[in-house]
Design brief:
Helix content: 40-55%
Low-confidence stretches: 187-197, 244-274
Number of helices: 8
Largest sheet: 6 strands, mixed
CATH superfamily of the largest domain: Hexapeptide repeat proteins
CATH class of the largest domain: Mainly Beta
Oligomer: single chain
Number of strands: 15
Radius of gyration: 27 Å
Strand content: 5-15%
CATH topology of the largest domain: UDP N-Acetylglucosamine Acyltransferase, domain 1
Strand order of the largest sheet: 3-6-9-12-14-15
Amino acid sequence: MFDRIREDINCVFDRDPAARNVLEILFSYQGVHALLFHRMNHGLWNLGFKWLARWLSSLARWFTGIEIHPGARIGRRFFIDHGMGVVIGETAEIGDDCTLYHGVTLGGTSWRKGKRHPTLGNDVVVGAGAKILGPVTIANGARIGSNAVVLKDVGEGSTVVGVPGRIITQVKTQQEENRKAIADKIGFDAYGMHDEMPDPVANAINNMLDHMHSMDKKIEEMCGAIKSLGSETGDLQLTELGPCEISSAVSSDDTGEDEAVESNTGVDQNKAGD
């Protein structure tokens, strides 16, 4: 028991740079308090003292803002950072070296008895506000992004973002390599985001880079064909673009918004009517 407590305290130093000493962790880290309560409540639950375990878990929730059902199985070196609003259901299983942030829910989607909560492997990190629902399995080393909603199994070492959660691959595709080459060629620092991420601006930029890559390839083929016929084409250097920023012209009222749009476009309504 004392070895487990020592591990639970030491892992805080590894994952929270704000931790300064053992006394600070013991007296001011609600995640550690909730875990210590759960270790005791889980033992009572397994011994058959289920009512007492539930009552003590409710008391722990009142003190810490973290709700852990005494039936949940939690591995070693588990850390809840900040902790407020964390909910862990009865049949949830958590492996070793896992980290949860505030607002995380490991919940169920069924009223039936039996396994209805998630299973987390080893070294899993779940970001703030994420929801993992149902008897899904999150494999070892997975990362769940903040506010993601996960309803399906997640493979080992995968990263999940968005609502609903989408898995982002770690291996770069040829298409991504082409985008990077075009972005470097025109001096543009492209968004470090994937197609699968729910960002319409990033997706639009990625589509533009794909189109530019295709056009660049066709132009090179045309220049090669012209040179093969005996003509010469000048080698022009592309002008490097400066920082590309997207600014918003939205004001607090509709009138201001219309004026901002009109001033940006520079359209003369009289000429447009002609």
